[in-house]
Specification:
globular, mainly alpha, disordered N terminus, about 75% helix, homotrimer
């Protein structure tokens, strides 16, 4: 029972990480293709979208960069590329599914980012920063590479979902809730905010009037 | 008297750092707003403008990233955002004041950048590089994020002021001048060059004529 | 004889590194000038083009950043700038020569990148990644700074040459071939692929057809 629970737990996290990485990579590959990048360019942009946030986080925390410790992130990106290559005509019909993978991946990235900073005894605001950077920075580099203004800065509560998820993690951790519950609650919270904001097109206001 | 002098000294440096950080953040927030970034996007661009140079410096020097050691840089950015939010219609009239804060902040950033490299026993040219990176890199990332060519590369002696300030620091340090005097002299030197170059619209020449 | 061989060896590698650094810097300086960057801007873009890939590699590997250990990379960039400044009208006629320097530099960068990761006992795929990053990332930052889509993602087998060179290094190293032979074979292999792909305009296909 214990073994099974443990195994099941590992599998679920792994599957979520795979799905999240693939969803992030697909978004990079599609946008790069729309800009007429070649195959390699598309793979690079996909990979950077998937691992860029975690890479900056690890550099800032001065810990080993996560994707250099295991080759699965590169394989996930290559898989995403092959998938887009063969099924690109059907991708439009999968937009909804990919959106869900993307949201679930974001929830996981926020949890992983928070925990990496927490393990180094950083205060809450650094943990929240690292959770947010893990979630959004890959998309920012993606948009810089394809020479567009980062969509993250105008999209429906993307970064705000990361920040609020991080704050929830901090509150629950302060209240000494069981870690597994915190992780699940944070990830679900991030997903709910993203889905809710996207469905109702909720956005942050824009600063204006200076002209 | 000693205590008071010490306190006064700390306060002056702190106030300068606050003003510099706020001035840099305001420049990022205004430019992001002009590109219709949402509130969060504006705060991120403001923060990156203020801390981007120091972050790259600390990564290159492999020392703990400065803004992760104290939350005041984030608070300065949030303050700058609230300030722009409420007073944006009057900001045009404050352009002169903000310009002075920006110059003074730049002078301080150059001094801090130089000293961080010096403390690790790097040679003069590395110290000057770190001083310059601290001063200019935040503005470069700001302009990349808003998808513009970095204005630093065409502006009135911005980077040159950093380099000359760094060289002055190196000369005075070699001449074993008292550290406090070096710091003040370097910062004032940077401010004077910037103000002078802006007032008389002094720019570096442009390479041309190849085609 | 041994001493002479040793000396000759060092000299050859040094000369190749100089030529490669200068060729990379020249490409950055020319593109920056075409965008009306001032002298300093051109030098920065040239420097970043030459050292950007190695800098990211060293940050990812968490080793001292190479150009902070020796001032020759900055001098090479300044030399490249002075060269462009005085001979820019003749540069068009030197395009072929500069292209060769660029290819030879790329071959060397791939070898250096692979060996840096190998010295830290990283697996083959990390070594290949570091070889590729060393070769291509400088050009990517260059194109981000001048606000263009990175040409690397559409150019003739630029990154592919790095990857294939890295894989060849890995195979020869696995076969326990003498290191000097591996280095020379890898560098020549990279140069040959680049020259061949450029001559016959061989490119990777583009992903398309989604819309």
């Amino acid at each position: 029972m214990f073994l099974f629970g443990d195994l099941a737990n590992i599998e679920v996290v792994d599957v979520i990480e795979f799905l999240g990485t693939i969803a992030f990579a697909i978004s990079g590959i599609r946008l790069a293709s729309a800009k007429r990048f070649d195959w390699f360019g598309a793979i690079v942009v996909g990979f950077v979208t998937a691992v860029g946030g975690g890479t900056l986080r690890d550099l800032l925390l001065d810990v080993p960069v996560f994707w250099m410790q295991a080759s699965r992130y590169i394989w996930c990106t290559v898989f995403a590329f092959v998938f887009v290559l063969f099924f690109r005509k059907f991708l439009v019909h999968l937009n909804n599914t990919i959106f869900w993978f993307d949201c679930i991946g974001l929830g996981l990235f926020v949890v992983v980012g928070y925990e990496k900073a927490l393990a180094l005894d950083y205060p809450v605001w650094v943990c929240v920063s690292m959770a947010t950077i893990t979630g959004i920075f890959g998309g920012i580099i993606r948009d810089i590479l394809i020479n567009e203004i980062p969509i993250i800065f105008t999209q429906e509560l993307y970064a705000v979902a990361c920040i609020l998820g991080g704050i929830l993690f901090g509150i629950l951790h302060y209240a000494e809730v069981d870690l597994l519950i915190i992780e699940v609650a944070t990830a679900i919270f991030v997903v709910v905010i993203r889905v809710w904001a996207t469905y109702y097109k909720i956005r942050l206001p824009i600063l204006k009037g200076e002209d």
